[in-house]
Design goal:
The protein is built from four helices and four strands; from the N terminus they run αβββαααβ. By secondary structure, it is an alpha+beta fold. α3 crosses α4.
């Protein structure tokens, strides 16, 4: 009975470790993985933009020295990736919001190989892909917009008091006792004409 439990336990542990080993096999040896900047790919159907897929990925170089070459050409590779995903669709034929990862992987690896060289790029690993719809919900459908009118004018009977201008106000904000309206002529200057 103990042997069966131990065998089942060992089998369960190896089965759980397989996805981790498969992911490590995809990535490559330490020092050969080059993390790529995020890639934003438009997703559309029949010419209508549905949203964007945000793609996080790593480019796997064939060696550590090739990884250095990839890092040196990173901007050119990213430019090629952006042109590729914006030029041709990357979605699955039956689901315009899902990425065809096999197609995208082949295209991006070809793009990177054109920039860096065939022998320097071993593959591509997608870390995460997330679709973000252009219109996240249909909550704005069939809604009546707010009225487009100006705010109500003040009542006609409400008079505004004349206040002294800023140059006539003292430090306290009150008009000095001898200040007068600038339109009123001052005695002595205009009276002589």
């Amino acid at each position: 009975m103990r042997r069966i439990v131990v065998c089942l336990l060992i089998l369960a542990c190896t089965a759980a470790a397989r996805p981790a080993m498969a992911a490590a096999a995809k990535e490559g040896a330490p020092g050969t993985n080059v993390e790529m900047p995020f890639l934003i790919a438009p997703m559309s159907k029949d010419g209508k933009l549905l949203g964007y897929t945000y793609i996080s990925s790593k480019l796997v170089a064939s060696s550590q020295s090739a990884a250095i070459d990839v890092r040196e050409k990173l901007a050119f590779i990213q430019d090629s990736f952006v042109r590729d995903v914006n030029g041709d669709p990357i979605c699955k034929p039956d689901d315009p919001t899902a990425v065809d990862t096999a197609l995208l992987n082949a295209r991006l690896v070809d793009d990177a190989r054109r920039v860096v060289g065939n022998s320097k790029v071993a593959g591509m690993v997608f870390v995460r892909m997330e679709f973000a719809p252009l219109h996240p919900s249909d909550s704005t459908l069939n809604q009546v917009p707010p009225p487009e009118r100006a705010p109500a004018a003040p009542a006609a009977g409400a008079a505004t008091a004349a206040t002294p201008n800023q140059s006539q106000m003292g430090a306290t904000g009150a008009a000095p006792s001898g200040a007068s309206d600038p339109a009123t002529p001052k005695p002595g200057k205009d009276a002589q004409h």
